Amino acid sequence: MPRNHTKQLLINYTTTSSNDLSMAAETKLAETNESHLLIIEDDQGRKEFMLSRPLYSIGRRDCDITLVSQFVSRRHATLVRLPRDDKNHSYYYRIVDGDAKGKPSANGLMINGRRIPAHDLKNEDEIVFGPQVRAIYYLLRDTARPIIQTDATEYDITLINPGMAEDIDEDIED
Question: In angstroms, rounded to a whole number, what is the distance separating the alpha carbons of residues 113 and 101?
């Protein structure tokens, strides 16, 4: 894959500076009800990463998310946060093979069983970086119900004194 093509896959949606995008996205994070989770399984076991930053490097060495395996490139993949086209100010992550400069990894990415250079992640997508090294992406949505305020007239509460129960028992026997 040509180097410039990968760079275009990473950032093909904007003409504004990355600082502007980062600040705008951070402001919008508070308004969404979504969380992004990446669960990695490698030679060291299982690790969980809550995703919130605009950019993550994934690889064997000197990366934001480190994968422990001889089959993984030093800079194997890049995760980029992109805004959705909706009014909820939500975002999604795109995973791209290689580093942010456009250099692809040696072994590529398998996403949901297909070898592809880039993919917009969806809930439960499986990313295979190499033998015994994989990740599952989860899009977690907060399904909390809105708080509904009620007034005291909706509830009829009658308190009974235990001594009153004896009087009721006597009335029943008579």
Answer: 26
Tell me, letter by letter, the H, E, C secondary structure of the chain: CCHHHHHHHHCCCCCCCHHHHHHHHHHHHCCCCEEEEEEEEECCEEEEEEECCCEEEEECCCCCEECCCCCCCCCCEEEEEEECCCCCCCEEEEEEECCCCCCCCCCCCEECCEECCEEECCCCEEEEEECCEEEEEEEEECCCCCCCCCCHHHCCCCCCCHHHHHHHHHHHHC
Query: What's the topology of domain 3-146?
Result: Tumour Suppressor Smad4 (2.60.200)
The residue type of 101 is K
User: Which pTM value belongs to this model?
Assistant: 0.65
> Could you give the C-alpha distances from 127 to 32, 44, 107, 166, in angstroms and in order?
25, 17, 13, 70
Alpha-carbon 135 to chain mean position: 12
In a structure prediction context, what are the per-residue pLDDT tens digits for the chain, which is 174 residues long? Answer: 454 444 444 544 333 334 444 444 444 444 458 899 999 999 999 999 999 999 999 999 999 999 999 999 999 999 999 998 877 778 999 999 999 898 999 999 999 999 999 999 999 999 999 999 999 999 998 765 555 555 555 556 666 677 666 655 565 665
